[in-house]
Design a protein that fits this description.
The protein contains 13 helices and 14 strands. It has 368 residues and is of the alpha/beta class. The chain is 42% helix and 18% strand. It has two domains: 2-171 and 349-367, Glycogen Phosphorylase B (Rossmann fold, 3-Layer(aba) Sandwich), CATH 3.40.50; 191-347, Glycogen Phosphorylase B (Rossmann fold, 3-Layer(aba) Sandwich). The chain is globular, with a radius of gyration of 21 Å.
């Protein structure tokens, strides 16, 4: 079949920088059996085209992006018709996808992949932050032929809005990121912790650092490695200095996958502090390497806890620190949680993701 895949970005021509690994894994698998045309709304500021993993990417660029996105899909459809249109993210990609699908008379699938359903005024985050955002998300989700999301908390959030949805996690690519058995902690050394996320408000590194300060006060020895692009201009590093954590934390900045893997592989725990997550995919990556996650009760952390992750309420650094300490102090439990998480990541990997979406495609086309 011929598929139009609409994304905000994450499909840089380098295939290394400014990419979303789970999205690349999906594209690579879909192009084995289908013709895929990717419409990236804002990967680059100017219109451009390039080939990536067997798919042609058409970047729409800035300026009347959504209107031009719909027109680009219509033009490509007229040259050779699409069977369906699939958006990763609701928001603008979803709006473009459902508008084009209605115009062309083909099914649409919208995958809710971020903060489309939330409103967090304190950090000015979320698709439902304004009445216009609420209206847009409602219109997109109700117009879509099918809606999916990565985790059970997201499915429940959609249900609360009257939207029936299917759960499709964005799994780890085990070919590009081979799995590994959980490893016992090396004795007589500080615990090695890792945090992989952009430094931004929704990832709430303030709670992470205050949890680390509480951990240090309780006598736990650790070293924390933080990998992710800094969007806050050094604010997190300054807080680490004020909390006297500089000697315990290494900030690595953005790391491509080949450099990120050894950092995660060497960790005893992944620690996440987000105020909201639809996933996150990085939790699958850590789990595949035998590294369990302790985090705030959002997304996969909430649905995997307590057997395959440990969860604490959002914005509660003391409770997050207690959960980290609990797993570090019980090596048997840490390994049990790691094995349970690895089993989930292995089962719901990138192949599972692609098969799940393909099954939905078939049902939509059969429904007519």
């Amino acid at each position: 079949m011929r598929i139009a895949l609409v994304v905000a970005g994450g499909v840089d021509p380098s295939g290394v920088y400014r990419v979303i690994p789970a999205l690349l894994a999906l594209i690579r698998r879909l192009t084995v059996h289908h013709e895929v045309r990717v419409f990236a709304l804002n990967q680059e500021p100017r219109p451009a085209r390039w080939d990536l993993l067997g798919a042609q990417v058409e970047n729409i660029g800035h300026g009347h992006t959504r209107t031009r996105g719909v027109l680009a899909i219509r033009a490509a459809h007229r040259a050779r018709p699409f069977d369906l249109i699939h958006a990763i993210w609701s928001s603008s990609p979803g709006l473009v996808a459902v508008a084009a699908a209605r115009m062309l008379g083909v099914p649409s699938l919208v995958h809710v992949a971020g903060g489309e359903l939330v409103s967090l005024p304190a950090i000015a985050y979320g698709g439902r932050l304004t009445w216009k955002g609420c209206l847009r998300e409602s219109a997109v989700l109700r117009a879509a032929s099918q809606v999916t999301a990565a985790s059970h908390p997201m499915i429940r959030a959609l249900a609360s809005l009257g939207i029936a949805a299917s759960r499709v996690p964005l799994g780890v690519d085990l070919e590009a990121w081979p799995a590994r058995e959980p490893q016992p902690r090396a004795p007589h050394r500080p615990a090695r912790l890792v945090h992989v996320a952009s430094l931004n408000r929704v990832k709430d590194q303030g709670t992470l650092l205050r949890a680390l300060a509480a951990l240090r006060r309780s006598g736990v020895e650790f070293e924390m490695h933080i990998a992710g692009e800094d969007t806050l201009g050094g604010e997190v590093q300054a807080l680490a200095a004020r909390l006297e954590l500089a000697a315990h934390i290494t900030f690595h900045g953005f790391l491509p996958q080949h450099a990120l893997r050894p950092l995660v592989e060497a960790a005893d725990l992944m620690v996440l502090s987000s105020l909201h997550e639809a996933g996150p995919a990085v939790m699958h990556e850590a789990a595949a390497l035998g590294v369990p996650t302790v985090g705030t009760a959002v997304g996969h952390v909430a649905e995997w806890a307590p057997e395959a992750a440990l969860a604490a309420p959002t914005g509660e650094p003391t409770l997050l620190a207690q959960q980290v300490a609990a797993l570090l102090e019980d090596e048997g439990r840490r390994l049990r949680v790691a094995r349970a998480a690895r089993a989930l990541a292995m089962r719901e990997n990138a192949d599972y993701t692609a098969r799940s979406f393909e099954a939905i495609y078939e049902r939509l086309l059969a429904r007519g």
